[in-house]
Design brief:
This protein has 15 helices and three strands. The chain is mostly helical.
């Protein structure tokens, strides 16, 4: 064979080898791409933690080497580790004990404050506080303020417009009209088992008498029927109760809220006045809150369920009368409502007094209050 033929054969073999190598590299790259899985960068943190744990936990060979060492050294090491753990536990125990001591001291301070507050004189004993709740009876009725602002003729014309049938005016046998006057559109009033009694007699130091409302057995049965009607979520059941018991307090309050939700504020205010009329004609003869004779203060507890109707009706009456620009009447009702329970003030009436004092131009009273 000639040299040319030999060179051609060598070149062909080299080309075949190159093709085989290229095919192998391509196949390996394809296999790597197929086996490639995207890796989360946070896995590196786990690997570092595993490496740290491996460093802390020795391998089996290292453990065997350590076992070969004398027993005394292992005992000494155990003692050292125990001592370290005990010191750490003691530190934690001291930290917890200091926290418990701090909590105990704060609890003791709070108990001392409560004892001091109980031992301190009640606000009823302070004469300046009593002066703040001196109620002027002529400003308690909103009709009187409306007459002063617009005149008797306009107020009477409005009442006649509200009663277009022109029915005969009902004779009111009950003389207590300090807060609300009876309207001709209302049904005839009858006492339906709601009354007031003295709960605590006169205290010589604070000069306070505590009263409370009480329900008769018939009124309690009506109250249970009212609760069933509320649970039924049908206001027609409450109206059925009112058809039989025209002056049931809780039913009147509930229907007032329903009419207010339906944007009938006139009916809502009328129902609250009706409930207040029933309450004021159930007062005890000794409950003379308008006279303020000898600095006497009359207290009613809001926490008793029977008394809550009076608080809620007075609060709603303040808001409805304030909407009619009868600010002086609202101020007097605020004073009356706050005087019933000065210490707790369950409805936050203290926040309304300054507003109504400014709107009614009672600046001197506001300065004394501050």
């Amino acid at each position: 064979m000639t040299t040319r033929a030999i060179k051609k054969l060598v070149k062909k073999d080299d080309l075949k080898d190159l093709e085989l190598k290229l095919n192998r590299t391509l196949e390996s790259e394809e296999s790597e791409e197929e086996n490639f899985v995207p890796r989360n960068k946070f896995d590196l943190l786990d690997e570092q933690l595993n490496l740290d744990q491996d460093e802390e936990n020795p391998t089996s060979e290292e453990c065997e080497k350590e076992e070969i060492k004398p027993v005394a050294s292992s005992k000494k090491k155990k003692k050292k580790t125990k001592g370290k753990r005990e010191t750490g536990q003691s530190k934690n125990f001291k930290f917890v004990s200091t926290k418990i001591q701090e909590d105990n001291t704060t609890l003791e301070e709070l108990s001392n404050l409560n004892l001091n507050a109980q031992s301190a004189a009640s606000p009823y004993e302070n004469s300046s506080i009593r002066r703040l709740f001196k109620i002027e009876s002529k400003y308690l009725n909103a009709d009187n303020e409306m007459i002063r602002m617009f005149g008797a003729k306009i107020v009477q014309g409005e009442r006649n417009a509200q009663n277009p049938r022109g029915g005969r005016r009902q004779m009111n046998r009950f003389k207590n009209n300090a807060i609300v006057n009876m309207k001709s559109t209302w049904p005839q009033f009858t006492k339906e088992g709601l009354s007031m009694k003295i709960l605590k007699e006169n205290d010589s130091l604070s000069k306070t008498i505590e009263f409370t409302f009480e329900h008769s057995k018939e009124y309690q049965q009506v109250q249970f029927r009212f609760l069933d009607a509320v649970e039924s979520l049908d206001h027609n059941n409450i109206m059925n109760i009112l058809q039989l018991n025209r002056y049931h307090i809780d039913s009147l309050i509930q229907l007032s809220d329903i009419s207010r939700i339906h944007d009938d504020t006139q009916m809502a205010a009328d129902l609250i006045e009706r409930a207040l009329f029933a309450l004021q004609n159930s007062f005890h003869p000794s409950f003379k809150f308008t006279s303020n004779s000898a600095g006497q203060i009359y207290k009613i507890d809001y926490n008793r369920v029977e008394n809550r109707g009076l608080f809620i009706c007075l609060f709603k009456q303040i808001l409805y009368i304030g909407g009619k620009a009868c600010y002086r009447t609202s101020l007097e009702l605020c004073k009356f409502l706050l005087s019933l329970d000065i210490q707790s003030d369950p409805l936050g009436v203290i926040l309304l007094i300054d507003f109504y004092a400014i709107r009614s131009s009672q600046y001197e009273y506001l300065i004394e209050k501050i």
